[in-house]
Design a protein that fits this description.
By secondary structure, the protein is of the alpha+beta class. Helices cover 24% and strands 50% of the residues. It is built from eight helices and 16 strands. The chain has helices at 11-22, 26-39, 44-56, 60-73, 78-90, 94-107, 112-125, 244-247, and strands spanning 128-138, 143-156, 159-172, 175-190, 193-206, 212-226, 229-239, 252-263, 268-279, 284-296, 300-311, 324-336, 340-353, 359-373, 377-386, 399-409. It has a 16-stranded antiparallel β-barrel.
Length: 410
């Protein structure tokens, strides 16, 4: 029997539906498959395409059911085995994903898709070392340069060790300051639930005033009650040491924040959240934010975002308006190849500083470029500039940042 004779008569319909889904129209793709299946409800190509599209749309429980049905009917369906493995991998069920890979490779040890999935699973399970160097500067001439080194290493199934150290050198026209610190903790992952807790200390050495050591603590939990919705809550305590002049103020911060993400389609995402921050000088800040983004085609993304915050009282040495509002439209272009990827984005909108303040034009531009190599290694550079007052600790007219991040699997 020739290769063409072995193809399903419905394969063109399946490929057409997959093409429609890749353009972001999941419901239309599923409707095309439903129409095609009227003539042949048991066609394997149509059922496989349906499972793939359901997984892309975030309907992973439905996708698992479709893949299971295909595998029960034909245990040697390598495409279904690999597809099911990817769904398990996206859910964080690495052992289940690896079982599907093993079954696919037992049928064909050179299967490229199965080997790629095995590499992805191993990258998730391996340890990671990350090093970064970062710089920032604002129009009030506050400059910061900081470096970090962090480690994430597996201890047991669903349990990882987290550790990190960092050095900050801050300056302004009148003073310099240095900070060194470290922290360690654990991260737990069980299905859709994740939790982490870390503790450490920072040594702060201002040019004006005595050096001191402050404890740092942070933790958080997140859960995905469904495939398309995520919820997270986090707490942190740390010294307020973003610019040199704050080192001598002896301020500490406690914060409690929550957020969510909701993906209504593969290309439309809504995020939001809010929280409160308490400073040791008796001040308090409350905040809320929200954003929507829509992918357009393969390369473009548009959206809108808003943010509102307010402080109980004016603070000394830091930006603390009784009210701040920001609303902007955003756009970005992204390109990606087998190794390289890049993103250029920006936003334009308005901001209001203080009750009764005039509305000002607000803008930001950011760029990022990265390269992957080997098995999960990556180097990435980024930079940005904005006139958003809330970006700078002092509310400066302009704020700039740049950095480089190196991530290596171990």
């Amino acid at each position: 029997m020739g290769a063409a004779e072995g193809l399903s008569a419905q394969q063109p319909a399946a490929e057409n539906a997959l093409a429609v889904a890749r353009s972001g129209h999941m419901d239309s793709a599923l409707a095309l498959l439903a129409t095609a299946r009227i003539a042949d409800p048991d066609d394997a190509d149509l059922r496989l395409a349906e499972a793939r599209i359901l997984s892309w749309a975030g309907r992973r429980r439905d996708a698992i059911a479709r893949y299971d049905s295909l595998i029960r009917k034909n245990p040697e369906n390598a495409d279904a085995l690999i597809g099911l493995g990817y769904v398990y991998h996206w859910q964080g069920r690495e052992e289940a994903a690896d079982r599907q890979v093993a079954a696919a490779l037992a049928l064909d040890s050179t299967n490229t898709d199965a080997l790629e999935l095995r590499h992805a699973i191993r990258r998730t399970a391996r340890g990671v070392v990350e090093a970064s160097a970062n710089w920032s500067n604002d129009s009030d001439r506050n400059t910061s340069f900081w470096q970090t080194l962090s480690l994430s290493a597996p201890l047991a199934r669903g349990l990882r060790l987290l550790a990190g150290v960092g050095l900050l050198e801050a300056s302004d026209p009148d003073r310099n300051a240095t900070r060194f610190g470290g922290e360690a903790g654990l991260a737990l992952w069980r299905g859709a639930f994740r939790a982490s807790v870390l503790a450490g200390a920072r040594r702060l050495d201002p040019e004006i005033g005595a050096a001191r050591t402050e404890g740092t603590y942070r933790g958080g939990v997140s859960v995905r009650p469904s495939e398309n919705i995520g919820i997270a809550v986090g707490y942190a305590r740390y010294p307020y040491d973003e610019i040199a002049s704050l080192f001598e103020r002896n301020l500490t911060i406690e914060s409690l924040e929550g957020g969510f993400d909701a993906r209504f389609t593969r290309r439309f995402l809504v995020t939001g959240g809010g929280g409160a921050l308490w400073l040791s000088d008796g001040n308090r800040r409350t905040e809320g934010h929200a954003a929507v983004t829509q992918d357009i085609g393969r390369y473009f993304q548009v959206g809108a975002s808003g943010r509102a915050l307010g402080y109980r009282q004016p603070g000394v040495g830091y930006f603390s308006p009784d009210r701040f509002h920001l609303l902007e439209g955003t756009a970005a272009v992204r390109v990606a190849g087998s190794r390289w990827d890049a993103r250029l984005g920006g936003g334009l909108g308005g901001q209001q500083i203080g009750r009764g303040g005039d509305t000002q034009t607000e803008w930001h531009i950011d760029a990022r470029v990265g390269r992957n190599w080997g098995d999960g290694n990556r180097i990435e550079g980024f930079g940005g500039v904005t006139n958003s007052a809330v970006s700078s600790t002092t509310g400066a007219f302009r704020y700039r940042t740049a950095g480089v991040v190196l991530r290596v699997g171990i």
